[in-house]
Amino acid sequence: MVGNLLLRGMLAGVLAGLICFCFLKAFGEPSVDRAIAFEAQMDDAKAKASMPGMDMPAAAPDEELVSRPVQAGLGLFTGVVVYSAAFGGLFALVFALAYGRMGALEARSVSALLAGMGFIAVYVLPSLKYPANPPSVGEPETIGMRTALYFAMIALSLASMIGASMLHRRLLARLGAWDAAVVAGAAYLVVVTVVALLLPSVNEVPAQFPAVVLWQFRIASLGAQLLMWTTIGLVFGRLAQQHLMAGTPRLGAAIRA
Amino acid sequence: MTSVAFPAKSRPAAIPVRQVLPWAIFGGLLLMLAIYFVGAEEGATSLIRGMYVHEFVHDGRHLLGFPCH
């Protein structure tokens, strides 16, 4: 049962990954290219400034390990699909634990609700604190710290969301489902806001970096994540429903029998 | 709990935690490793020598929101 759900989750994830890849190819890659062009421009300017008079073919670009077309094609495809399939699988595992423990909600509703919560906890809140950055934004020396902070933010946001769900269960009898959800949601927001305020800020956007490119890049990143979570939530919900209902006799069949 | 609110519906049967746990541990570990390779390998930490993985998934890493170089 769980293995089958896991497979269905990864299948939903692969489908979501394909959709995300098309979306990012159309709306994400242009801003990546513009950011790389900006980076090259800055390198040029720096090389000219440090060696006036010498008309060097500006700082020979470091040897390319993977060409741009591959990065923007097969590389992007692989990264997005693997990421999305993995999240689909993890999502199915969380679903397996939540299903039947969220009141009388049926599989499709549990899946849609969990996807919304996952999108907020794993992407939206962490990226409000540490937004996605295009190439040429970010100092190479701070990559270790930035990665640690980003993953810490995701972990804390996710832990807060799990805590809020537990709070919801405890308040259910006293407040009813709706009010308990409002209180738990507010508690989640308060906790992640405090966490975000306590964690150090990172701002490494070069002064001349075009604001429009930054906005387009971040909005494309948000769009892709929204697409991914929506697809996983809806497609997996349908697939899980099919699997979970397969064992129980249908109402129609029961009446005819 | 909410049986008062939904008296007509039967509650869907939960899957026993003991049944989910092995899948959650082994599956979860493998899947998180996959996310690590897309999101952080050869950036902050490195399991494989060189920069090939980093360069290959470069665009995806940026666009999925991970910090990158």
TrEMBL record, chain A:
Superkingdom of origin: Bacteria
Record's keyword terms, sorted: Membrane, Transmembrane, Transmembrane helix
One of the Pfam families matching this protein, by short name: CbtA
Chain ranges passing through the membrane: 74-98, 110-128, 148-168, 180-199, 219-240
Keyword Transmembrane helix among UniProt keywords: yes
Keyword Transmembrane helix attributed: yes
Name of the protein: CbtA family protein
Organism the protein comes from: Lichenifustis flavocetrariae
From TrEMBL, chain B:
InterPro entries xref list: CbtB_put (IPR012667)
Taxonomic superkingdom: Bacteria
Chain segments annotated as transmembrane: 20-39
A Pfam entry, by short name: CbtB
Alphabetical UniProt keywords: Membrane, Transmembrane, Transmembrane helix
Protein name as it appears in the record: CbtB-domain containing protein
Species, as recorded: Lichenifustis flavocetrariae
